Amino acid sequence: MTTLVEELLLLAYDDATGRDRSGGYLELGLGGAVVLELTIAGRLEVADKKVRVLDGEPLGDPLLDDRLAAIAADRPRAPRAVVERTAKKLKPLVLDGLVQDGVLRHEHGKALGIFPLNRYLPNDPAAEADAKARLGAAVDAARAEDARTAALAALVYAMKLERVVFPDRKAGPTRKALKAIADGSWAGDATRKAVEAAQAAVMSAVTAAVAVNASSSGSS
């Protein structure tokens, strides 16, 4: 089964160009997705505003297990700190895994005949189609039937990916529905707290990164 982390990456990539359309902040979203995946699996919780390990037993997914071990080896930290630490060097690992599994194909080329160009195009579109169908049905109903779909909606909302994921829908109502899904009563209190914390952490980290980039551009 495709993980929440992989689903978020697939949704953020353009099927025609094979390029990341998240605005450069996909890795932060993937860090949030790892935290939520591990929470849904009963490995993490958010208590007293800290991410804590409930169970260090591996899940059998190398990427998730590696990040779980790293979180377990560290002291409890605020969700944003965990998201940012977990996100480091995550994107290429997820891409490589999807290529190895045959979900994406990696094409090398050159832009203007000079600059290296890497494209990741759909090879097996079923995983992305399933994620879009679940998310689309949830947006239509403004509620999710399961924690994974609600978590995915929260991440898409946090990263402002509604135009990328649903180019044929009006952005305003879609964003409103995504927020309603994230805020809805679709899971137990512990999982909801983790989703709310991870969503806030991703939004905060992205906002901070945008501000830093804007400051750097203004001073150059």
Automatic annotation (TrEMBL):
The keyword Chloroplast does not apply. Pfam families: GPP34. It comes from the Bacteria. It is a peripheral membrane protein. It is found in: Golgi apparatus membrane. Coiled coil: none annotated. GO terms for molecular function: phosphatidylinositol-4-phosphate binding. Gene3D superfamilies: yeast vps74-n-term truncation variant domain like (1.10.3630.10). GO terms for cellular component: cytoplasm; endomembrane system. Keywords: Golgi apparatus, Lipid-binding, Membrane. Its main location: Golgi. This is GPP34 family phosphoprotein. The lineage of its organism: Bacteria, Bacillati, Actinomycetota, Actinomycetes, Glycomycetales.
